Amino acid sequence: MFLIFGVRGKDKIVGSRLGVCEVCGATAAQTLIRRTTKFSLFFVPLFPVRPARHFVACTNCGRLRNAAREELIPA
């Protein structure tokens, strides 16, 4: 009998806004991404193994950075 298990991360785009990138300095769209990591058994995700993390991605340079709490609250 085989037992297939592991963890898998999944990204979901929550929203976007226009802003200045801290890395490249360009005014471009900044995308807010929510990343969840779940335990899976036989390729079926069952439960989260860590709290969801939020990142901001610049569409100009493609760099990811951690999102500040102020960026998570809708304006």
SSE blueprint:
Elements: E1 5-20, E2 27-41, E3 44-58, E4 64-66, H1 69-72
Antiparallel strand pairs: 1-2, 2-3, 3-4
Domain Zinc-ribbon: 20-66
Protein name: Zinc ribbon family protein
Pfam family, one: Zn_ribbon_15
Describe the structure.
With 75 residues, the chain is mainly beta. It has one domain (5-72). It contains 1 helix and 4 strands; from the N terminus they run ββββα. It has one helix at 69-72, and strands at residues 5-20, 27-41, 44-58, 64-66. The chain has a 4-stranded antiparallel sheet with strand order 1-2-3-4, with no helix packed on it. The longest helix has 4 residues, at 69-72. The termini are far apart.
Task: Give a concise summary.
This protein has 75 residues and is mainly beta. It has 1 helix and 4 strands.
